[in-house]
Design a protein that fits this description.
Layout (H helix, E strand, L loop, with lengths): L3 E6 L5 H13 L3 E6 L14 H7 L4 H7 L2 H21 L5 E6 L1 H12 L7 E5 L9 H4 L5 E4 L11 H18 L10 E6 L4 H13 L3 E6 L3 H11 L5 E4 L3 H8 L11 H6 L3 E3 L6 E4 L14 E5 L2 E5 L2 H15 L6 E6 L16 H13 L7 E4 L6 H16 L1
Parallel strand pairs: 1-2, 1-3, 3-4, 4-5, 6-7, 6-8, 8-9, 9-13, 13-14
Antiparallel strand pairs: 10-12, 11-12
Length: 405
């Protein structure tokens, strides 16, 4: 069955390249819908949806944007218009996939539309800035966006751009043809946060939940994972959360590489989703290569995790701060919540005899939890390490009890 694939780009500067991708999609038997996000020059190829329609979808006009002579405002308006059009087409069942190409501005506009679409809708962005020299995480957000490096600038068709654009067209066509469509389940859904240093516990927990008929979704503790998890919670798609590896909270408080947003745990508390919270991975700060770390931080215990990541032990004061952060949010949840603390260590390297073992610092998390809210939180301490099978069994049993109650 032919798929409707939206092709987004500025037809005044990328018209030839957009036409090339459009024709490749059509040759595969699918329906390309070209959306013009350009402003200045005349389109170099015929759009399906004109720039005037895009500007109108942003409650503006091309004439008004040109008269304002404000590049940033114009980009924002066209991004808003393209996003509105993409969302409407999807709601009407007229969008099966989306591909965009461009430089920085084109990437801003194209990925804005992609982020407005649900997970499961194929999304491919061919970008000049998709490389290690630029931060493109904000373009992706919490969605399943594939960003492909254009290698050469997108300026005409040549031996490089033809190949790259053909690969991108093939990617979006293949994704559209194999897309499963909206996913649903009649099983209760549990989300978990995970990290490499808590993998043993997470894997055991997944086994236990799946054996009892639960749908299990794991999210990495990279800051974006928890944000995606809490978006699902806020939309009512989760029946329980096992926040087993909230390393991103420590990253946020201490300036580490993987940081949560300031509103971490807010949606969970507001929605009252049953939650068991475990301070897994909150006991260390993730920094970059060893040579990039401030000398005073290297006076602490640390482990070179790999050539680009170093684990530096969090001290007692920082653990207290983390405890206060969690207590402030979970202390006002509208649903059931339990905080479970593994007293023999919070991560793989934080174990007796291990390089990051520091039970006194770990104790700071409990002290921070209870400093201002003693008796107001349901806190359980277990004489176990986080990666012991018995600990996984205990937290799973607790979350099931909260969900069933």
């Amino acid at each position: 069955m032919p798929k409707s694939i939206i092709v987004i780009g500025t037809l005044d500067t990328k018209g030839q390249e957009i036409a090339f991708v459009r024709d490749l999609i059509a040759k595969r038997g699918h329906q390309p819908v070209v959306v013009d996000s350009g402003i200045l020059g005349e389109p170099a190829t015929e759009p399906t949806i004109t720039r005037h329609e895009v500007a109108a979808a942003a409650e503006s006009s091309i004439e008004a944007l040109l008269a304002a002579d404000d590049k940033n405002s114009a980009i924002s308006a066209m991004a808003k218009g393209v996003t509105s059009i993409a969302a409407s087409l999807h709601a009407e069942g007229k969008l099966d996939a989306v591909i965009a190409l461009g430089g920085v501005q084109g990437t801003v506009i194209g990925t804005a539309a992609m982020r407005a679409l649900p997970v499961g809708v194929p999304k491919v962005m061919v970008s000049t800035v998709a490389n290690g020299q630029a931060t493109f995480g904000p373009f992706v957000g919490t969605k399943d966006i594939t960003i492909m490096h254009s290698v050469a600038d997108i300026l005409g068709l040549n031996i490089i751009t033809r190949q790259v654009l053909a690969e991108a067209a093939g990617a979006v066509v293949g994704m559209a043809e194999l897309a499963l469509g909206p996913q649903s389940t009649d099983r209760p859904t549990v989300a978990m946060t995970m990290a490499g240093v808590t993998t043993a516990c997470v894997m055991r927990a997944r086994e236990l939940f799946e054996a009892r008929g639960y749908e299990v979704i794991a999210f990495h503790c990279n800051g974006i994972g928890a944000k995606a998890m809490e978006e699902l919670a806020d939309s009512g798609q989760l029946q329980g959360i096992l926040d087993l590896s909230p390393h991103d909270i420590g990253g946020f408080l201490r300036g580490g590489l993987m940081q949560s947003s300031p509103d971490r745990l807010e949606a969970v508390s507001r929605r009252g989703v049953p939650i068991v919270f475990v301070p897994g991975g909150i006991d260390f700060i993730l920094f970059g290569p060893l040579q990039s770390i401030a000398p005073d931080m290297l006076e602490r215990k640390y482990v070179v995790h790999n050539p680009i990541h170093t684990h530096v032990r969090a001290n007692r004061a920082e653990m207290i701060d983390a405890g206060r952060f969690v207590a402030e949010r979970l202390g006002r949840t509208t649903g059931p919540a339990t905080i479970m603390i593994p007293q023999r260590g919070f991560s793989q390297l934080n174990i007796e005899g291990g390089p990051l073992y520091d039970p006194q610092a770990d104790r700071g998390f409990f002290d921070g939890l209870t400093a201002d809210r003693a008796g107001k939180l349901n806190v359980t301490q277990l004489d176990m390490h986080i990666n012991e099978p018995a600990f996984a069994e205990a937290v799973c049993a607790e979350l099931r009890a909260l969900m069933e109650s």
